[in-house]
Amino acid sequence: MFFKNRITTLLQVILCFAWIVSANAQDNKIVIEVDLAKSKGPMKPIWAWFGYDEPNYTYMKDGKKLLSEISQLSKVPVNVRVHSLLVTGDGTAALKWGSTNAYTEDASGKSVYDWTIVDKIFDTYIERGMKPIAQIGFMPEALSSKPQPYRHFWKPGDNYNDIYTGWAYPPKDYNKWAELVYQWVKHSVARYGQKEVESWYWELWNEPNIGYWKGTTEEYIKMYDYTADAVKRALPTAKIGGPETTGPSWDKAQAFLQAFLDHVTNGKNYVTGKTGSPIDFITFHAKGAPKVVDGHVQMNMGTQFRDIDKGFETVASYPTLKKLPIIIGESDPEGCAACSEDLHPQNAYRNGTVYSSYTAASFARKFDLAENRGVNLLGAVTWAFEFEDQAWFRGFRDLATNGVDKPVLNVFRMFGMMEGNRVEVKQNLAYDFKKVRDESVRDRPDVNAFATKDSKSAAIMVWNYHDDNLPAPDAEVDLKINGLPSQKLLMHHYRIDSQNSNAYEAWKKMGSPKSPSTEQIAKLEKAGQLQMLTSPEWINPKNGVANIKVLLPRQGVSLLKFSW
Asked: Which of 16-30, 412-426, 512-526, 531-545 has the lowest mean pLDDT?
């Protein structure tokens, strides 16, 4: 009887284990249905927007190289937003700092304009077919109401609040400030032409609800009126907007955003005395919140989505503003691009595939968030660029390190190949935008897709994302694609994972060299480009339907491109 009970117990354990293995296998098998015949509207290139703190990196060696690569991501012009375009200084680049010396005053207090460095920055964009988001800020030393101390020397590990020096204060003379803005816009038209400047977005300041603005909410609103009036006097067809507040799910940011929108719709204009202010687009920011949990990085996409959703809800509550374009002026997994991984371990996601899979899954859902609130999402700025002459893969939030592309940049290359209209992807999977917004991705992995179609091609992006950066089995994805032409099609399969399109893993395999050789750098540059998983292959849909099996690693992203 004893042995019989032992055998029975053993059999129960084996059966239970087999059931768990079977259940896990079922969990890893995902069916995704794509219907190319069901359009969801145009594929707006909301991803083709980038930004960074340090304007003087723009025309440096690795800055120019990266901007060239970004400009080549797609057929559409890429928009670039950068801070400190009016800050006083000699143009020396540093973390969280930049300067152009655009405005100074002579001994008698007369205004002196020098556009040399500003032009150098904007020329770099225009030469590559890019569009500046002309950020009007920050305060020149000669105009600051509290100029000293002015220049800061922040470095990772220092108190972040130390950066908010004399450049963050209101002007001591609003008329001189307005004349500066007027002269800048007039100069831009003279240099680049009216048609070109009409295609830019002019905006005032950055995150005025926190330390970036040392004035009151009402003082920002006053300065906006003076700024908007000056822009429109210089070029009536120019586009002006704001207020670039931090995430609206934070009460203080929400209060600032609402005060601004109340003013531009119903307030008394500080310049004209009339009701309301010119506004052509609305901006705010949205950030996630990673942390270290039990020794690994845990992302929080839900926090970022709640920022976005609250901002959309707020704009939608103003009938006269609801259809204005919205630019999410910074839209990222967290807040501080210059806070490196070596001092901030929660930022360890930045070098590898967590950043790329997060980007794929989050950008695809931004369309759904906008449609749900009935607003007009124009763009979402990825606040990441490069940091010149820093240690290799130090863990800044950047797109490339020392001229070598990181995996995340390849997601944008994938998006650049997606054209035409967005099409239906069946939403019977583990997550939709509402569940990610409310819960983030903490239970099952988010294995899903985003698809587009134009007259002669279709593209399907598939990701296997989870907030927790832990090892996990590959997902077995069965893609059922309806609406293909009933003819022979060419399929290209691109992949980002630990083995493909990943210079970081290639660098680690080299032994993480601190000073890679010329030969090693060449290999890293090649590894950083977007790579195909397999050779191109011809497929034959049956009655317009194709079934494609994809084995997708955790935090991996695939793009299947069909052409005919």
From this structure: 16-30
Q: What's the token pair of residue 229? A: 């009036």
Of 166, 258, 178, 180, the closest CA to residue 222 belongs to 178
Tell me what the mean pLDDT of segment 370-375 comes to: 98
**CB-based contact 425:451 (threshold 8 Å):** yes
Q: Which two tokens stand for residue 170?
A: 């209101």
Q: What's phi and psi for 102, nearest 5 deg?
A: -65, -30
Spell out the domain ranges in the chain.
23-40+420-563, 44-416
Superfamily the domain 23-40+420-563 falls into: Glycosyl hydrolase domain; family 39 (2.60.40.1500)
411 CB-near residues (< 8 Å, 6+ apart)? 356, 359, 360, 363, 496, 557
Statement: the pTM of the whole predicted model exceeds 0.70: yes
Residue 41 structure tokens: 């509207």
Of residues 111, 125, 136, the one with CA closest to residue 77: 125
Q: What is the DSSP letter of 316?
A: H
Residues in the chain: 564
Q: What's the pLDDT at 429?
A: 82
pLDDT of 498 over the 60 cut: yes
- Contact status, residue 215 vs residue 255, Cβ threshold 8 Å: no
**Residue 82 dihedral angles phi and psi, to the nearest 5°:** -145, 150
Amino acid at 220: Y
What the block records as the tokens of 319 is 């009938």
HEC profile of 158-179: CCHHHHCCHHHCCECCHHHHHH
Do residues 241 and 284 make contact, with C-beta atoms less than 8 angstroms apart? Answer: no
Q: Which helix (H) or strand (E) holds 12?
A: helix 2-28
Q: Name the pLDDT band for 27 (thresholds 50, 70, 90).
A: low
- Could you report the per-residue pLDDT of 133-157, keeping only the tens digit for each? 999 999 999 999 999 999 999 998 8
Helices 301-316 and 353-373: crossing angle in degrees, nearest 10, is 20
Kindly give the interhelix angle for 174-192 and 116-127, rounded to the nearest 10 degrees.
Answer: 40
Closest to 217 measured CA to CA, from 260, 185, 167, 154 = 260
CATH superfamily of 44-416: Glycosidases (3.20.20.80)
Distances (CA, A) of 534 to 103, 418, 456, 468, 487: 55, 19, 22, 28, 21
How far, in whole angstroms, is CA 472 from its chain's centroid? 27
Q: Is the peptide bond before 138 cis (omega within 30 degrees of 0)?
A: yes
Residue-wise pLDDT tens digits, 203-241? 999 999 999 999 999 999 999 999 999 999 999 999 999
